[in-house]
Amino acid sequence: MEGLDTGNTAWMLASTALVLFMTPGLALFYGGMVRSKSVLNMMMMSLSAMGLIGVLWVLYGYSIAFGNDVGAGLLGNPFEAWGLKGLFVGSYTGDSVSYVLSADIPALVFVAFQATFAIITVALISGAVADRMKFGAWLLFAGLWATIVYFPVAHWVFAFSNDDAGVVGGWIANDLAAIDFAGGTAVHINAGVAALALAIVLGKRKGWPREPMRPHNLTLVMLGAGILWFGWFGFNAGSALGANGTAAFAMVNTIVATCAAMLGWLATERIRDGKATSLGAASGIVAGLVAITPSCASISPMGAILLGAIAGVVCALAVGLKFRFGYDDSLDVVGVHLVGGILGTVLIGFLADPGSPAGVAGLFYGGGVDQLWRQVVGALAVLLYSGILTFVIALIVKAIFGGKIRVSDEDEATGIDESEHAETAYDFSSHRGLAGVAGTPRPDAATASAQSVVAGKEG
């Protein structure tokens, strides 16, 4: 294939795998944070997003997000690449050579890379509705939300115009010229405000906030956070679309901002509560990753440290907003992803370094408020569009399910794993009555005799 760069292609293939791996990492992160009777359902909500959104992306999602614009930068043509026609050898258009996107990687590599973004964005929302949403209702909501909200917003933010090819992209990327390198608006603000709207429609968990609902397995939480950090290098550095200096710049910023955010969150906990926790460390990691996502190619490493520290502190404080305002965001999607996404997007307007790959000067570098207002408008546009439409979609799903999109009170008390999946995560029956099981050692004679004596005394 003429113009193919195998090095860039290899990096993008690896980045795609890294980002896809983030969704199982998110499943572990979320799964450890819920109670043991809900862990399978929580993980299934993430994993089911992989299956559902992956299929929708190939059918029409990619075309809506990256097809040629059909009006005012709001929507790509859903039929232009329906079923990915025209993007591979032997395609419906009869082309003999695969398209090449960004000059030197196959189109299908970019298709796969962006599919992983769509998948994890939907999965992020599920953390706000843990313990109580019917699985069928979740799947219907996820499909509608991806179609009506994520695919168009991805077009706004990620679809850049190409005058030479006659391609017109989305309005935020091209007309507004707001900077969002890897998805602070399209992914994190989008998912965060959607999580808030869905949680409000769904209602609070029974007993919240009176009853403690502690994470059942912090080991899983920390493992999930580590996998997310690992996969996020594909998320951010992969968004350079090549093995180049911009990818290296984004990778360094992704490391250092996350480190600073973890320290910021732990310091906040230590000052406020007297203890620094493992849950705080894991949450700080995610907050830093969220905040650096839009800005990893536009601020300096020193700016990344400052941004990360701010995100760690602010997000640690923001998770308490649900108690003040009374919305039950089970796993703090709002406090981490919505707040972190807004911080990372807006602070570009202050911290953008003209020496960075983006080449834009923020307010602190003499650029005035020109970039700042663009960042604010982009963030607000996604927040309002996603928040309003998510609320409407949630009400539609609720009506389709006869007003019952959450499990019954009895099923919620028993555990959503059993009611929705007929399974439990942990089987303790194997620890009982093992002496009569074939192959299980029986007590020796001395132990048996001692047990008889004790039994006789008790009798």
From TrEMBL:
Pfam families, per database record: Ammonium_transp
Topological relation to the membrane, as annotated: Multi-pass membrane protein
GO molecular function, one term: ammonium channel activity
Record carries keyword Kinase: no
GO CC, any one term: plasma membrane
Keywords annotated in UniProt: Ammonia transport, Cell membrane, Membrane, Transmembrane, Transmembrane helix, Transport
Residues annotated as domain Ammonium transporter AmtB-like: 10-426
Region named Disordered: 433-459
Main location (coarse class): membrane
Presence of keyword Transmembrane helix: yes
Family annotation (InterPro entries): Ammonium/urea_transptr, Ammonium_transpt, Ammonium_transpt_CS, NH4_transpt_AmtB-like_dom
Domain of life according to the entry: Bacteria
Family annotation (SUPFAM superfamilies): Ammonium transporter
Residue intervals passing through the bilayer: 12-32, 39-60, 105-125, 137-158, 178-203, 215-235, 247-267, 279-297, 303-321, 333-352, 372-397
Family of the protein in this entry: Belongs to the ammonia transporter channel (TC 1.A.11.2) family.
Summary of subunit composition and partner proteins: Homotrimer.
Functional summary from the UniProt entry: Involved in the uptake of ammonium/ammonia (NH(4)(+)/NH(3)).
Protein name: Ammonium transporter
Species in which this protein is naturally found: Pseudonocardia oroxyli
Lineage, opening ranks: Bacteria, Bacillati, Actinomycetota, Actinomycetes, Pseudonocardiales
